[in-house]
Write a structure and sequence with these properties.
Layout lengths: L3 E7 L4 H12 L4 E8 L5 H8 L4 E3 L8 H13 L5 E4 L8 H6 L4 E5 L11 H7 L4 E8 L9 E8 L6 H24 L3 E4 L2 E4 L2 E2 L4 E2 L9
Parallel strand pairs: 1-2, 1-4, 2-3, 4-5, 7-11
Antiparallel strand pairs: 5-6, 6-7, 8-9, 9-10
Helix pairs in contact: 1-6
Length: 220
């Protein structure tokens, strides 16, 4: 099986990128990371990619007159690598509708909550403030609705009485680093597909997201 060509977008430290790249290097994730693209030239994730000799692009929004022009440049950078899938790994900008439509059914995102709960930012603090008993992360296909695309899989994380946003975030990140590569493996091997917003798994409609338990715990 030929590796699936992907382009990864990030804005920050790139820990999800690193988790994905580690699986690729181990030979357990059949994808080819053709490029990493960021909107922040100072992003640590960019340096992580460069250390692995992966092609990188930095497209700071300040270099463009408006969002439309920035997204056009972003699409050109992505498409120059002919990816079959675009992977958002902590990319923090909201896309224009033409970009989302251009990558319909072939762009995935990971969000730090059990969607549809806590869309948007500051999810860990919001979960604690709401008195929730569990939190987690979700992988979903990207649509024009912010964090509203169809969800493929989720990893629940318990909330402890003494949790802070930082301690809760650490457990959620651990779950993200195992959940995202799993979903990418499903897509790369043809088990997971999305057609006009309708998810299919092994050729059958996926009526509810997979719930993968205890991914926040250390691997045995």
């Amino acid at each position: 099986m030929r590796p699936l060509p992907v382009v990864i977008l990030l804005s920050g430290t790139g820990t999800n990128f690193s988790a994905i790249a580690a699986r690729v290097r181990a030979g357990t994730l059949p994808i080819e990371i053709r490029a990493v693209v960021t909107d922040r030239p100072e992003a640590e994730g960019l340096r992580r990619a460069q250390a692995l000799d992966i092609t990188t692009h930095a497209l700071p929004p300040r270099d463009y007159a408006d969002r439309r022009l920035h997204d056009e440049a972003l699409m050109a950078a992505i498409d120059s690598h002919s990816p079959a899938l675009v992977v958002l790994a902590g990319y923090m900008r909201i896309f224009t509708a033409p970009l989302v439509r251009h990558y319909a059914d072939r762009m995935l995102n990971i969000h730090p909550s059990l969607l549809p709960q806590f869309r948007g930012l500051d999810t860990h603090q919001r979960a604690l403030s709401a008195g929730a008993s569990e939190h987690g992360c979700s992988v979903h296909f990207v649509t024009e609705e912010l964090d509203g695309g169809p969800v493929v899989a989720q990893a629940p994380v318990p909330i402890h009485a003494d949790d802070t946003p930082a301690t809760l975030a650490a457990r959620v990140h651990a779950a993200e680093h195992r959940l995202y590569p799993q979903v990418l493996e499903w897509f790369a091997t043809g088990r997971l597909r999305c057609n006009s917003g309708n998810i299919q798994f092994d050729g059958q409609p996926l009526n509810a997201p997979f719930r993968l338990e205890k991914l926040y715990e250390p691997a045995s």
